[in-house]
Amino acid sequence: GETHVPKVGSKPRIWEKASKVLGVRTPVAIVRTAVRLLLGWPAYIFFGASGGPAYGRTSHVWPWKPFNQGEKELFPGKFKNKVLQ
Q: What b/e readout covers 10-31, taking b as 16+ CB neighbours within 10 angstroms?
């Protein structure tokens, strides 16, 4: 199904760098959680910002163009009309 797909890479992320600089992980984890909940989750729901390649850019609130661009449809057939209900 549709899910958040994090980027994978070999370079250290800003969160890892911040943890090393501060020497403490808890404040960084709190900020990271807040950013994901306040920015990341809405971006995923409204714009499909971090969805997988099978569905492409999808929106959970608007199932038509410009968001319906993947190999599969997130809301096939008459389910598209049910999204707006």
A: eeeeeeeeebeeeeeeeebeee
- Written as one letter, the residue type at 38 is L
Count Cα neighbours of 49 within 13 Å in the Cβ-side half-sphere.
10
pLDDT digits (tens, 9 = 90+) for 15-30: 788 888 887 778 888 8
For the whole model, what pTM was predicted?
0.60
- Which helix (H) or strand (E) covers residue 35, if one does? helix 26-35
Environment class of residue 32 by beta-carbon count within 10 Å: exposed (0-12), middle (13-18) or buried (19+)?
Answer: middle
